């Protein structure tokens, strides 16, 4: 073997890869890969728990919004119903003095010889027509005569001694009161009885 062939053989031996180094790198890679499944599993569990919590929060939020919307619908329906019931309250209040005047006109004609004239009959028909409209819109007169005085529905204008009625009884009605759907729109102006003193009884 000459010198050139010997140098070439040594160079080829030097360029061969080291099997030991390759085996070490593969082992390290495998060990590194063995640790990743545990970390990946922990991340998956955390992600699932986070998703569950978010889903629960979203569901609770949905329930709250649904309940609030349901309450809103009920409140709106109730307010609309109240509005419809009392939408005519203002005009009805304006008509009450007209009714009062018609009733006074009929009462004042009672002692007139011409009380059965066409004019009085016309006034009576007008009053009946208005009261009929009131009835259609749930407007009712308060029954006060001979009833115990009730400060909710009655406005006492004076007291009058009487031994015919119990004390605090409505014995006269100066102006009628009215209800609209059970709501007081005008109290009745009344005279209330009071007991006579011992001196007056004797």
Broad structural category: alpha+beta
| Count of individual helical segments | 5
Coarse morphology = elongated
Task: Tell me the Rg in angstroms.
Answer: 50 Å
What is the number of E strands?
A: 6
| Helix coverage percent | 55-70%
Mean pLDDT metric:
82
What portion of residues belong to β-strands? 15-25%
Instruction: Flag low-confidence runs.
Output: none
CATH topology of the domain at 141-202: Nucleotide Exchange Factor Grpe, Chain A, domain 2
Largest sheet: 3 strands, antiparallel
What are the secondary-structure elements, in order, as H or E?
HHHHEEEEEEH
The CATH homologous superfamily of the domain at 141-202 is called Head domain of nucleotide exchange factor GrpE
Please state the second-level CATH architecture of the domain at 141-202. Roll
Q: Given this structure, which CATH class of the domain at 141-202 is correct? A: Mainly Beta
User: Numbering strands along the chain, what is their spatial order in the largest sheet?
Assistant: 1-4-5
Distance between the termini: 169 Å
